Amino acid sequence: MYRVGTGFDAHAFCEEKVLILGGVEIPGCRGLSGHSDADVLSHAVADAILGAIGEGDIGKHFPPGNPEYKDISSLVILSEVARIMTDKGFGIENIDCTVVCEEPKISPHAPGMEKKIADALGIPPEAVNVKGTSTDGLGFPGRKEGIAALASACLRVL
Questions:
Q1: Domain spans of the chain?
Q2: Under a CB-based contact definition with an 8 Å cutoff, are residues 50 and 61 in contact?
Q3: Per-residue pLDDT for the chain (158 aa), expressed as one digit of tens each?
Q4: Which fold has domain 2-157?
Q5: How far apart are CA 101 and CA 105, in angstroms?
Q6: pTM exceeds 0.85, yes or no
């Protein structure tokens, strides 16, 4: 049996943080505002997995008002989500992600993101796909106000 989940996250840019996407620090870019490291890509992946196993969303497990999670690495969050998933008897077939932004360009960083996400989830990098797209100037990503990410997770019963 297979289960599929989807995840979405969006954060506004802020000057005070470094940009982290898929666990990769991207130099020369504004960071994202958020309680944790604001890694929209990892957050979308976490929500996709949690959705597939019927465990709500990232806010249920890592409440944004909880000081324990202030500036937490989203890779730590992904590792904990993987533990919850395994405890419920599921394994990952594949993860597919799209980062929506005008900048930075995602393709040069995608292999590193795939590896970091895969390592956090305990799966091979080939099971993770990261790609980028722009909105051709439309919406908040097009106005360069922030970044959004979408993810799909295909899980199997172990």
A1: 2-157
A2: yes
A3: 999 999 999 999 999 999 999 999 999 999 999 999 999 999 999 999 999 999 999 999 999 889 999 999 999 999 999 999 999 999 999 999 999 999 999 999 999 999 999 999 999 999 999 999 999 999 999 999 999 999 999 999 99
A4: 60s Ribosomal Protein L30; Chain: A; (3.30.1330)
A5: 8
A6: yes
